[in-house]
Write a structure and sequence with these properties.
The structure holds 2 protein chains of 2 kinds. Chain A is an all-alpha fold. Chain A has a single domain, classed as Helix Hairpins, CATH 1.10.287. Helices cover about 75% and strands about 0% of the residues of chain A. Chain A is built from 3 helices and no strands. The longest helix of chain A is centred in the C-terminal third of the chain and has 31 residues. Chain A is elongated, with a radius of gyration of 18 Å. The N and C termini of chain A lie far apart (about 65 Å). Chain B is mainly alpha-helical. In chain B, about 65% of the residues lie in helices and about 5% in strands. Chain B contains 30 helices and 8 strands. In chain B, the strands form 3 sheets. Chain B has a 3-stranded mixed β-sheet with strand order 1-5-6, covered by helices on one side. Chain B has a 3-stranded mixed β-sheet with strand order 2-3-4. Chain B is elongated, with a radius of gyration of 36 Å. The chains are: A mainly alpha, B mainly alpha. At the A-B interface, α1 of A face α30 of B.
């Protein structure tokens, strides 16, 4: 079983980093508001994964798990509000393209 | 105690301010509401207000004079009322204060009584005048100013009054301002007076400055300090009581011996033992309290010379003396030998100047007086020369003396009662009063005194000779006034202040009577003149160039039968002014002549004799021109038959006043003689001399140098001579002018044989012409030269400087545009440019922001990685 490397902290961190990068790139490049929300979900999940990993390998206890639960909750709430905003944007602009919704800068 | 002085004792009173207040109110009412009142209710309320206020004022003045001043001990005859502090800046401390001492008391009574009489006379004289209210408003305003001048306790108040009477004189001379000549006469009076006022101001400032920089109260040593301060001084008896012999038992007839002589009976007789003095002081206080006018918080005897007193929290007085409560307190008289704080330094109060000048050190040297005497100004000219000459210039302006007398004859353009009140009885005597008031300064300067007396003597003669050939009855009286004022100045100039003031008061009565008499004549002639205007000049008028002139004596003649009261009173006044025994002018004029003759305190020894000669000649001329005017006006045949029909006696309000003044002119001789017997015979001191002595005796011993001791023969001879001269003058006038028809021939004779003199005198020595040619033309030339200078040089300079400024401005403008604005705009442009670029960053695209954040985080990571402690 030597070929099988036991899964440790770095593996988790790498996955989380990949997830984070995927989320970040999604947020930075997509013009669809819903897609951006999905990127944000990825970022949140990356963070949540980090919490769990650090809790398991470094800190111990349940604090990390509790944080990830909070993050899930937060993500739900955020998705709820953000989707409402997106709906409202769509109603006003007839589009969910964030490039069209730049009126705030004026 | 190194210093001692005969400090002026004074008594605080309440209500002195009412004397000038009443006419001020009358003036205010008549000047502000007079037109309205006259329109609504007629002239009666106007003169009720004017005359009423004057009656109130004179009753108040007489009450203070007879009720409060006279009963007091001679040394304490000084009523003081400090109403409120007027100016208080640094060393200048001016109280709105009134003082009544014998001098100002006599003046105030004279002014109010004569003014009341003339107010009453004016009711008749001005009855037909349209702007009746204006006349009475001005007249009341004048009385207010005059009383301010007389009663004011300091230079500032005196100057207010001084300017006020000048203003009222101007207003009343130009009362009929629609006549340009009259308006111009007013202006002339005002401008000539301004020259005098300039002298007054110079004198005032120089004196104030001269008192500056004086004393420190280190015993035995006086060092320089910049402002005044109080030093303790031991009080001494007033000089009045120094020569303490009761009038009767003087060793030898000392009457004419010297200056303000020595009498002050009661005080001297009572002696100066402290007990007696204390008792008397207490009695004085009790009497004052009983009067109700003076109140006192503590029964202060002389043993409490200055306990703190306070007036509503304001500290009054300066030398630790305060007042208490709302009512004024009696100043407890200070006994001789006690210590009193005396202010030393610059001040405008007469009393304070007089007190400090009297301070002596232990060796009897008058330290402050010497300091003032030794003061010099500009190349070492004595300061006192400036002071006395300045004040005297002021006096010559107001009192119409050489060189500033020319305004007074022109001032006759005003209504005749005004001439009587302002230009004969009161205002023109202000100069004499001022010199007498400032006796303590003039006495320090023999040059000043000599100038006063000499100018007085010269004026007396010059004006009298001009008066000889005047035809306008008011002009005769005007020159006579100038001449008589000259006599007064001789009196005060030789140091015999009481005589000057006595002549002033006597003159006020007889000259007012003469002027009002002439006014009565003019009033009576007016109808005739109006009548003649319709008919043209009748052919038999031989002499008068203008037969419609109601003032030309050639149009009169024989009026004595038509106007009996006027003629009689005029005759009485003529006797008085000519110096005929039994009439007041005799006693005063004779005394002036004798004082001038006997006084040896002039700068050069024969000045007194010269002045005497001038005055004696003047006296003869006086008698001549006065009786000339009497004969021409009242005797002989009337100039025309129309006189009998149209000339009438004046109304009663005028004749009564004439009689009042005429009787006053006779009775005034009582105060200057012993029951009509001149002092030269009885060797008793006349009442007025002893009464006025305390007011003028302050430093008189510095000036008591009679060159002649008493000489009965000489005195009798001089007195006889002056009477003879007067009689010669009267006889001459009778001989020449008893009948107008013969006058013409005589005048022709005079013109032929005395051509030069006649032309010279008839044209008033061409003084007006000379003044016109020199001063007036000179000023015009100067004005033109200055105008040219202004136009060319000053304007040129102004234009040049403006050009230079413009150049400078354009230079700075360029700098401003290019440099400063460039910098400012450069900064602004930079900011705008930067902003234009930077604003692109805010695109509003969320992706760009996220990219930015991510990029920023990466940069930060690098920074931290390579520099921070995170890696370690």
């Amino acid at each position: 079983m030597t070929a099988l490397v036991s899964v440790g902290l770095p593996h988790y961190l790498v996955v989380a980093a990949l997830l984070f990068m995927a989320g970040l790139i999604t947020v930075a490049t997509r013009r669809n508001a819903v897609a951006i929300l999905m990127g944000v979900e990825l970022i949140l999940n990356a963070a949540s994964l980090n919490f769990v990993a650090f809790s398991r390998f470094v800190h111990g206890g349940v604090a990390g798990q509790v944080f990830s639960l909070f993050i899930i909750l937060l993500a739900a709430a955020e998705a709820c509000i953000a989707l409402a905003i997106v709906l409202s944007i769509f109603r006003n602009f007839k589009s969910v393209d964030v490039f069209n919704t730049t009126t705030l800068r004026e | 105690m190194p210093y001692s002085a005969a400090v002026q004792e004074f008594v605080r009173v309440h209500g002195l301010w009412l004397i000038p207040f009443f006419p001020a109110m009358g003036a205010l009412i008549n000047c502000v509401f007079g037109a309205l009142i006259q329109k609504k209710w007629g002239k009666r309320p106007v003169h009720i207000i004017a005359v009423g206020t004057m009656v109130l004022s004179s009753v108040t003045a007489l009450y203070f004079f007879f009720g409060l001043l006279l009963p007091r001990d001679p040394a304490q005859r000084f009523l003081l009322e400090e109403v409120f502090p007027m100016i208080d800046i640094g060393a200048v401390r001016v109280m709105f204060a009134f003082a009544m001492d014998p001098l100002s008391g006599v003046m105030a009574c004279m002014v109010t009584v004569v003014a009341t009489a003339i107010h009453i006379y004016s009711m008749g004289y001005m009855a037909d005048e349209e702007s009746y209210w204006r006349y009475f408003g001005y007249l009341n305003l004048f009385c207010f100013s005059m009383l301010l001048l007389v009663l004011g306790d300091n230079f500032i108040l005196m100057f207010f009054g001084w300017e006020g009477v000048g203003l009222c004189s101007y207003l009343l001379i130009g009362f009929w301002y629609k006549d340009t000549a009259k308006a111009k006469a007013g202006m002339k009076a005002f401008i000539v007076n301004r020259i005098g006022d300039f002298g007054f101001i110079v004198g005032m400032f120089t004196l104030f400055w001269g008192l500056l920089g004086m004393w420190d109260a280190v015993p035995g040593k006086m060092s320089k300090v910049d402002d005044g301060r109080c030093i303790p001084v031991m009080t001494k008896p007033m000089p009045v009581s120094k020569h303490a012999a009761p009038a009767g038992d003087k060793p030898g007839p000392a009457h004419h011996g010297g200056l303000p002589a020595p009498q002050a009976g009661p005080r001297a007789r009572q002696g100066a033992s402290p007990g007696v003095r204390a008792e008397r002081a207490r009695k004085t206080l009790m009497a004052a309290m009983a009067d109700g006018i003076i109140s006192t918080a503590h029964a202060a005897g002389p043993d409490q010379p200055h306990s703190p007193q306070r007036l509503g929290g304001i500290q009054l007085g300066r030398c630790g003396e305060k007042q208490e409560g709302l009512r004024f307190l009696a100043q407890p008289p200070v006994s001789v030998g006690q210590t009193q704080q005396v202010y030393v330094g610059p001040t405008v109060s007469f009393r304070e100047i007089r007190d400090q000048l009297a301070i002596e050190d232990s060796s009897g040297k008058r330290v402050v007086a010497d300091h003032l005497k030794n003061g010099t100004l500009w190349f070492g000219i004595p300061l006192l020369i400036f002071v006395t000459f300045g004040f005297f210039l002021g006096a010559t302006g107001k009192s119409a003396q050489i060189p500033l007398y020319t305004w007074l004859p022109d001032a006759m353009a005003g209504p005749t009662p005004v001439s009587a009140l302002i230009h004969a009885a009161t205002m023109v005597t202000a100069g004499v009063y001022m010199v007498a008031r400032l006796n303590f300064i003039f006495i320090l300067s023999p040059e000043g005194m000599t100038l006063v007396a000499l100018v007085g003597g010269l004026t007396a003669l010059l004006a009298a000779t001009i008066g000889l050939f005047q035809y306008d009855i008011k002009k005769v009286l005007a020159y006579s006034t100038v001449s008589q004022l000259g006599y007064m100045f001789v009196g005060v100039g030789v140091g015999a202040y009481w005589v000057g003031i006595y002549h002033l008061v006597a003159h006020a009565f007889f000259k007012a009577c003469l002027f009002l008499g002439s006014g009565s004549v003019i009033h009576g002639m007016h109808d005739l003149v109006h009548h003649r205007h319709g008919h043209g000049p009748p052919p038999d008028l031989r002499l008068a160039p203008d037969p419609t002139d109601p003032q030309d004596m050639r149009n009169m003649g024989g009026l004595g039968k038509l106007m009996p009261h006027t003629a009689r009173t005029y005759l009485i006044a003529c006797f008085a002014i000519s110096g005929i025994p039994l009439f007041s002018g005799f006693y005063s004029k004779d005394e002036i002549l004798w004082k001038a003759f006997s006084m040896g305190n002039m700068s050069w020894p024969w000045a007194g004799k010269l002045i005497w000669a001038l005055c004696a000649l003047g006296a003869m001329c006086t008698a001549f021109y006065m009786f000339r005017s009497y004969f021409m006006t009242f005797r002989g045949r009337p100039a025309t038959e129309e006189h009998v029909k149209h000339v009438h006696e004046s109304p009663r309000s005028m004749t009564w006043v004439l009689w009042f003044l005429a009787i006053g002119a006779v009775l005034m001789s009582l105060v200057g003689s012993t029951v009509f017997v001149p002092a030269a015979i009885t060797h008793k001191t006349p009442w007025i001399e002893s009464f006025l002595a305390p007011a003028t005796a302050a430093l008189s011993d510095a000036f008591q140098k009679p060159s002649l001791t008493h000489n009965v023969v000489l005195e009798w001879a001089l007195m006889g001579l002056s009477v003879v001269l007067a009689v010669i003058g009267i006889f001459g006038a009778w001989f020449w002018y008893k009948d107008l028809s013969r006058t013409e021939a005589r005048m022709e004779w005079a013109k032929r044989n005395w051509r030069f003199v006649h032309v010279l005198v008839f044209n008033k020595y061409f003084v007006d012409e000379i003044y016109n040619a020199t001063f007036v033309r000179g000023f015009h030339l100067l004005a033109r030269a200055l105008g040219w200078f202004d136009l060319r040089v000053v304007d040129g300079l102004v234009n040049a400087s403006s050009w230079a400024l413009r150049m400078l401005a354009s230079f700075f403008g360029a700098v401003d545009y290019k440099l400063v604005d460039g910098a400012v705009n450069g900064v602004a442009d930079t900011v705008i440019g930067a902003g234009r670029r930077v604003r692109r960053i805010q695109s509003g695209r969320i992706n760009a922001y996220v990219m930015g954040v991510a990029f920023g985080v990466v940069v930060l990571l690098f920074v931290v990685w390579f520099s921070g402690p995170m890696g370690r």
